[in-house]
Design brief:
Distance between the termini: 11 Å
Radius of gyration: 23 Å
CATH architecture of the largest domain: Orthogonal Bundle
Structural class: mainly alpha
Number of strands: 0
Largest sheet: none
Number of domains: 2
CATH topology of the largest domain: MetI-like fold
Shape: globular
Order of helices and strands: HHHHHHHHHH
CATH superfamily of the largest domain: MetI-like
Mean pLDDT: 87
Length: about 280
């Protein structure tokens, strides 16, 4: 008993060290980049009109903090709305693809085609069709985040244990029973991985949509457009920085939430492996 307890303690310590290093290393790299950036601006005396230093960007962020916060919230709402739409549509599409090879062969190329069309070409069409507003931005976000969910979920639904699949067939399980009780649980890590990827795409889609909408709706994209026009680079960099932080936070929250759901409900990780203590002699 004590030996197994020691093993679990060692595993937990290793996990903690890995988690700390996963956070610490990127922070150190960011600090190094900011230091080099500030040093270059100071050493070569670069004009803030050409390249503001991190200090100037931080000062500008504080100066327009209320506008940045309002814009970030608006962009986050549009992105999460678009992501929710893409999760529903992507999951239903993956269900259809997993149930019929004919449907998959007929329609999957169009899903790929949707992904290959530049979003800057799609966004104006959506905005002209739906008008300049929140709905258009959310739809652009949904379009950009749809493909990762379709591909990841379809892969998970099709990559099931053949032994378990044969067992379900032996007991004459219906197509829906096999889907809901075998394929869906097996596909959950793939679905969550797809949502993680799509979360970043949803932020990008929302910002692109807001950029084309312009002053029609508040958001980081509209703010980037305005700051680009006025050539206030410190505030432009501040807005881009907030957009980056927003995307990182959303990605991190979805990762943590996905890991928590898989571990507590299914004893799995995002890699699809069973986690936690295993029964033994």
């Amino acid at each position: 008993m004590s030996e197994r307890t020691g093993q679990f303690s060692a595993v937990n310590k290793t996990s903690v060290v890995r988690s700390v290093s996963d956070v610490l290393v990127p922070v150190l790299v960011l600090a190094l980049v900011l230091g080099v950036w500030q040093g270059a601006v100071w050493w070569w005396r670069i004009s803030p009109v050409l390249l503001p230093g991190p200090g100037a960007v931080l000062s500008a962020s504080w100066k327009i903090r209320a506008v940045l916060l309002e814009s970030a919230v608006r962009t986050a709402l549009a992105a999460m709305t678009g992501l929710s739409i893409s999760i529903v549509l992507g999951t239903l599409t993956a269900f259809a693809f997993s149930q019929s090879a004919l449907v998959r062969r007929a329609f999957y190329p169009y899903a790929v085609l949707l992904q290959t069309v530049p979003i800057i070409a799609i966004a104006p069409i959506v905005i002209v069709s739906l008008g300049r507003g929140f709905v258009s931005v959310a739809v652009v976000s949904a379009i950009l985040s749809l493909f990762p969910i379709i591909t990841s979920t379809t892969t998970g639904l099709l990559q099931v244990d053949t032994t378990l699949l044969d067992l379900f067939r032996l007991y004459r399980a219906s197509r829906w029973q096999t889907l809901l009780r075998l394929r869906v649980p097996a596909a959950l890590p793939y679905l969550i991985s797809g949502i993680r990827i799509a979360s970043g795409s949803s932020i990008v889609g929302a910002i692109v949509g807001e950029f084309f909408v312009g002053d029609g709706t508040p958001g980081l994209g509209s703010l980037i457009q305005r700051k680009s026009a006025t050539l206030v680079l410190s505030e432009l960099y501040a807005t881009v920085g907030v957009a980056t932080v927003l995307g990182t936070v959303v990605f991190g929250l979805i990762t943590v939430l996905g890991e928590t759901v898989l571990r507590r409900r299914f004893g799995m990780s995002l890699g699809g492996r069973v986690s936690g203590p295993q029964s033994g002699d």
